[in-house]
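Marked as duplicate of an earlier ticket. Keeping the data here for the record.
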Amino acid sequence: MRRRHSTTTARIDDKSIDRLTDFYAEVGCDGVTVLGIMGEAPKLDGSEAEEVAKRFVKRAKNMQVIVGVSSPGFAAMRSLARASMDAGAAGVMIAPPPTLRTDDQITGYFQTGGRGAVGSGIPWVLQDYPLTLSVVFTPAVIRRIVMDNPSCVMLKHEDWPGLEKISALRAFQKDGSLRPLSILTGNGGLFLRFRDGARR
């Protein structure tokens, strides 16, 4: 994402963003997620992150773009989320900071981040990646986050092994205690949508 010009300065590599976006469009992708936690996003300042998000959205044309807005501070999260949505993003993605430990801390963080910082009108994805973030979501915690935050429309499930967690979420949906939720699995790139307990 960044191209180094000298030993002291760097800038966003716009041409590489364009080539990458064009490639995904050419192979038939319906959408992309950008500024995730495993890339260079944490190295960008606020204005650079907004620049990258806007570049992807503008170039993506018919693809939906989900922008990762994870940040230790809610002000930065709010700013990037709103700039991304104003540019035409389909939604944003939020991962927990690695300092969260208790269930109440986790659910409280997403109430403040999802409903407060991002805002109730912006659809967002809950990112569950305990192997990197060391924050463990139980199925009950995921259910609580989703039910407390109507704008949470998808779970990016990257736990491993994770089938038991997905099975528990399906059971919650079957008994009516969890509303319909899209699930994007990071372990193999499968997309699952649960509606009325069905797997699609």
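See parent ticket for discussion. The beta strands are 2-4, 10-12, 31-34, 64-68, 91-94, 124-128, 152-157, 181-185, 191-195, 198-199.
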